[in-house]
Model the fold of this input.
Amino acid sequence: MTLIDGKALSNKIQQEIEEEVNKLKQEGIIPGLAVILVGNDPASHTYVNMKEKACERVGFYSIVHKMPETISQEEIIETIKMMNNNSRIDGILVQLPLPKHIDTNKILEVIDPAKDVDGFHPYNMGRVVEGLDSFAPCTPIGVMEMFKEYNINLQGKDICVVGASNIVGKPMAALLVNANATVTITHIYTKDLASHTKKADIIIVGAGKPNLITADMVKEGAIVIDIGINRLSDGRLVGDVDFENVSKKCSFITPVPGGVGPMTIAMLLKNTLTAAKKRRNK
Ligand code: L34
Done:
C-alpha cells in the first residue's frame, strides 16, 4: 500500500509557485487574491487562515474581507463587484458555506469568470465539462494532480465518485470523464452504495460522513481518495473512509489530514497565479 502524501506534493507545488512569483515580481507583477469570509464558522476561519498564510508564503498579495453573519446579499454582491474592478486583485474567492439567508448561486455568478479561481462560476463549470481551458475547482484538480504525481493512469478505469456536490463530486466526475475513465456518481439517494464502490478500481469520496466507506465496500487493490474532512467530538480530524481497515486492501490511499486538503490550497495558489498571468497576457 502506498500512502499518497498530499502535504509533500502541496509543498513541492507551492515552492514552484514561489519561484515563478519571484520572476514575475522582477516585472512588477504581484498576484493578488481576495477572500470573502462571512460569519463565524470555525472551520471556515481555519481554512481561510491557511489560505492567507499560503499566499504570504509564495509572495502573493492577499486580503480577507470579513463580514458578519447578518450581512445582506446585496452587500456581498457590491463587495464582489468592487473586487472585480480592483486591478490588484487577480482571484476572488467566497468561502463556503454562506449563511442560509444568502443565495449562494446568485453570489457566485457575480464573480468575474476571469477572477474565479475557485472555478465555481457556471461559465467555468461549463467549460470544465466540455474539457476546455478553464478554472476548475481546487479540490478536484488537486486530486487530478495526485494521480499525475503517482503515475496513476485513469484511462478505462472504473471510478466511483461518492457525493454529487457542485464543488467536488460533479466537477470531479467531469475531469475524470475527460481523462477517459468510466465514472459512476453516487449520492444520498443511491440505492446500494456498496454495489457501486465494490466494482470500482478507484473510489473518490467527498460526502462528509465519517466511516462511510468501510473495508467490505472496497475491492482488493483499489485506490481510495478521501476528500471528507470531519472533526469528531474528541477533536480528532477524520475523513469519510475507515482508514485503518480500508488501507489494508488498497494499492494507494490518501490520509486525512495531510491528503487532499493541502492540495486544495496548492491548487488555489496555482489558479491565482494563472489568473494573474492571463490578465497580463502571459
Ligand atoms: N469557496 N469554499 C470555497 N472554496 C474552497 O476550496 C472551499 N474549501 C472547502 C470548504 N469551503 C470552501 C476548502 O478550501 C474545504 N476546504 C479545505 C481546504 C483545506 C483543507 C481542508 C478543507 C486542509 O488543508 N485541511 C488540512 C487540515 C486542516 C485542519 O487541521 O483543520 C488537511 O490536512 O486535510
In short: The chain has a mean pLDDT of 98. Residues 46-47, 50, 93-96, 118, 138-139, 229, 237, 256-258, 261-262, 264-265 surround L34 (CB under 6 Å). The two ends are 41 Å apart (CA to CA).
